[in-house]
Every structure is written in structure tokens, then in C-alpha cells.
Amino acid sequence: MHKPVRADLRDPALCEDLSLAGRVVRRSGSGFRAVRSILEDVQPVWVVVVLAALVLSMAILFVSEPHLVFADYRIAYYPAGSMVIHGQSLRPLIEKGVTGFVNIPIVAWLFTPFALLPVVLSAGVFLLCGIVGLILSCMLLIRIAGLTGWRSHLFILLFAMNGPLLYSVKEGNTSHIVLACLIGGLVLIRRGRHGLAGSLLASAALLKLPLLLFGLYFVVRRKWSAAAGFGMTLLVAGSVSLVVFGLALHAVWFDVAVRQFSGHSLASFNVQSLQSFVLRLRTPAPALFDWHLLPLSRAETLVCTLVSVALYLTTVLVCLRTMQTPRKKPSMASPDPVDLEFMLVICLALLTSPLSWTHYYAWMLIPIAFFIGGRFTAGSSGVGTSPASLVACLVATLLVSLPVMFPTGVVPAVTVFHERIGTSTYFLGCVLWLSIIAVTVNAEQRRQAFIARALPLPVFESARLPAKI
């Protein structure tokens, strides 16, 4: 039987080990206390809101389109990254058109890290990246729209239930990630970091071509640093893409992804452009589950041209009005002109692009956040100046937020209405949002003119404060 050995506390090595163990225990205790403190600070209402948001989003994901989960990722993004890794040409994938890879070839490099993993594991990692982007987007929107209390709770629920957003997640697309880029661009513009904002928005435009409209907006508004950042980012990305993949592949990509949509469009239910809306008004209605290009007739082309011109003229007039409105600290009583112009460009890009997929309309969460914050219809209660303004914003929010579903087995009358109008709710909601923004800008300009006449000049000039996040 061994005798117990008494430790010598004078041993320097033993003392050092005991000291280290003590520090570990103290730090662990501090860490546990910090976690407990955070958990104690969490209000029960936030727990309820987050749980409700998770339940609602999962329910909508379960019943909404598409039935083939992560279809875009599996048929386009993952194969593109895999082809780049194995030195294969992207041409067969690009030539598939809307059922293949539609981005400029250099974008395929973004998916090479994912293609190193098995497809299922890769999809899971991509999903986690998207969730991080969603959390960031929601937090930034709550902050820049000034949402507090019940307004922030309501917005989180609307964010979690947004049909186009969940459609992008379930489809395995990048529109919900681009949303974070758009919000980041707005934040940078508000902070005066126009060059970085232009670069970030150009990166978003490389993923979603309709956002190239921001480049034109920066030039028209003479935001030269933003235009330079936008243009340089596109120039560098385009040059690298040409060097790496060659001119021939880019000619194929341009022909498939851009040129063929001149005078043609898709009538499928998940395309929400002006041209698609006009095509779905045909009698008999075209197939809504057909993704082949249909030519526009002369009359349809004329209608689309006239409406597009009207939308662009409206946007230009609104921008001219905002140029006459002094920039100030945004409040519930008066929205910032920069915010309004930014949202207007997004609406115009969605409506006039030859190809606007339904998941693009997740970007309409930006005006929805400002509506919840009272920036469009501010009154004494912070909700609305009139029933009409409140109803318009509510209807617009509903139309662009519906779950992406295609009902079957309904009565013929409902089917006819749905084929022609019901499938275009997102497009119609965006038109309504553009109108709301235009009316808001006009009302704000008249309000500022009234204040300028009513108040002494020094008092009015004191309102010209920089708008920051």
C-alpha cells in the first residue's frame, strides 16, 4: 500500500500550476456571469418575438415555392464553382440561359470555396452565410429606420414572413445576400463614404444586373466619388473576368443573359417585370410554368416603352424635387431625401428591368422598414397623416410581401384573375411604392417651402443637419 505524498507548496512549478488553475476558474466564472447577465437583460417580449419569427418563417418556407429546395444553387452556382476548380469551360452552363449560370463569368470564382465541399454540406454552409446576411440586414434596417419598441418587434415579424426573401433562401439564390449589400450601401451614403458605397453597390450589381441603374443615378445626381467607385469596381471586375475567361465566353454570356431579352421576356409566374406583366395580360394567358422566352408584339413593346418612359420621367422629377429639399437629420415627421432617392432607384430597377425575379422584391424590405418607422405617413401618432396614406402603405407592403405560391384547383373565374393579375402582385406593389415615394417627396418639398416662408432664415438654416446612421 502506497503512502500518500504531501505536496510541497514551496515548489515553484506547483505554485505556477495552481496559479494558472486559479486564473482559469476565475475567468470561467466571469464568463458564466457575463452570459447570465446578458440572459437576464433579455426581455421576455424579445424571446416571444424571435420564437414567433422562427415559427412563421418555417411555416411559410414549408408551404411556399419552390418545391425543389436550393434549385438555383444546385443547378447554377455550385456547378459553376466546380467547373472553375476543374478547369472546365462555363459555356455549357451559361448557354442554358435562365436555367443555368447567368452571371458574368468572374462571379463563378465566388463559389469555388463552396464547390470544394460535397454538395449537401456546401449548401448548408451557403445557407449559414445567407442567415448571417439576413441577421445583419434586419439589424441595420432597424437601426437606420429608427425602429424601437413595438415598431422593431413588428418589423422583425414582417421580415421573417417576407415571401420574396424566404423564396430567395429556399431557392438557394443570392438576392437576400444582395439585400445586405444594398443596406450597407445606404449606410455608407448616409455617412458620406460615397466611394465605398459606389464600390459596394457595384459588387451587388455584378450579382444582379438591374442594380446597374445605380451607376446612372450617381452620374445624374453628380455624386462623382460614388460614380467613380462604382465604375472602377465594374472596370476591375470586368477586366479580370476578360483576362481569365476570354472574350469568346463573354460574348456568349452577353448574348444569353442580356441581348436576347431585347424584345422578349418570360411570362412565368416568378418573373415580376413590366414586360412579364404585359405578357400575362394576353388572351389566352401564356403558360405560367414555362421559362422559354416569348416575343413581345409591337403593341406590347409600345406599351412597355411608354410606361418605362413615364417611370423614368417620374424618377427624374422626384430627384429634381429632392435637390431643392435641404438635407437634414431624418425624423418621423420628415424623411431624408437621400433615403427616398435610394429607394426610388431600387423600385425603378425592379420595374423596368427586362428580367426581375420574384426574389428580387426582397429588396422592398427597405421602404417597408421606413414605413414602420413612420417616415412615409407621419402624424401626431407617428402612424399616418390620413387614412388614405396609411392604407396605401399597408396595401403596398402586403403586395410585395406575400408568400410565393401558385394555387391550383381553384374555380375558373379565380384562375383567370390569378393568371392575369394575381401573379403580378409584387410588380403592382412596387408600382404603388414608387408612387408613395414620389408623393412623399412632393409633400416634403412643399412642407420645407412652407417652413422657409414661415420661419426666420437662421432658424430654417439650423435644420440643415447631416443625416447619419
Automatic annotation (TrEMBL):
- List the Pfam families: GT87
TM segments?
45-63, 114-142, 196-220, 226-249, 299-320, 340-355, 361-378, 390-414, 426-443
Q: Kindly list the GO molecular function terms attached to this UniProt entry.
A: hexosyltransferase activity
Annotated membrane topology: Multi-pass membrane protein
Entry annotated with the keyword Nucleotide-binding: no
* Major localization class: membrane
Q: Which UniProt keywords apply?
A: Cell membrane, Membrane, Transferase, Transmembrane, Transmembrane helix
The family this protein is said to belong to: Belongs to the glycosyltransferase 87 family.
Protein name in UniProt: DUF2029 domain-containing protein
| Naturally occurring in which organism (per UniProt) | Lichenicola cladoniae
